[in-house]
């Protein structure tokens, strides 16, 4: 490996999309958080419409629950602040924890009452398929429903529906 700091001298492929740089991933402007459920918000970082995944920060304040759901594809998470667990498992994800959720995993995310605020970076592939405790379908989210939620929210808080465009690839 070379120790010289020499940049690559050729252009990227002309079809390559530009990178996304988010200087304040945990936003300073509260309006950037998109409401998802009671005490639950998300902050988009990448909404990949061509490959069907999204990367976002999930925030839960005080005790909160993200309804029971199944992932048909893998999910990766990294806890930035606070802690949480799945009602279906014994482990607790604490600050600094990495979580891999394999395809087929069905769970209910729970933030305990003693946690003031939880923020976790999630990269979700495919769909979140919501089910009740018996496995009956109750709804879904995918990159397109997330995008719609963002457009509506950003329009309503004065950022403009196109604010979300910077996160689309």
From TrEMBL:
Residues 26-117 form the ChrR-like cupin domain. It comes from Pollutimonas subterranea. It comes from the Bacteria. This is Cupin. It holds the Pfam family Cupin_7.
């Amino acid at each position: 490996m070379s120790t010289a700091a020499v940049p690559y001298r050729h252009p990227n492929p002309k079809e390559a999309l530009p990178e996304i740089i988010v200087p304040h991933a945990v936003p300073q402007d509260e309006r950037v958080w998109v409401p998802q459920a009671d005490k639950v918000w998300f902050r988009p970082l990448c909404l990949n419409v061509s490959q069907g995944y999204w990367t976002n920060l999930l925030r839960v304040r005080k005790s909160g629950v993200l309804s029971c759901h199944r992932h048909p594809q893998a999910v990766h998470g990294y806890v930035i602040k606070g802690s949480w667990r799945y009602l279906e498992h014994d482990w607790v994800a604490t600050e600094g924890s990495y979580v891999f959720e394999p395809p087929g995993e069905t769970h209910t995310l729970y933030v305990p009452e003693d946690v003031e605020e939880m923020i976790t970076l999630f990269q979700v592939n495919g769909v979140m398929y919501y089910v009740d405790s018996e496995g009956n379908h109750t709804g879904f989210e995918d990159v397109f429903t997330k995008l719609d939620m963002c457009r509506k929210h950003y329009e309503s808080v004065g950022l403009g529906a196109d604010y979300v465009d910077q996160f689309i690839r």
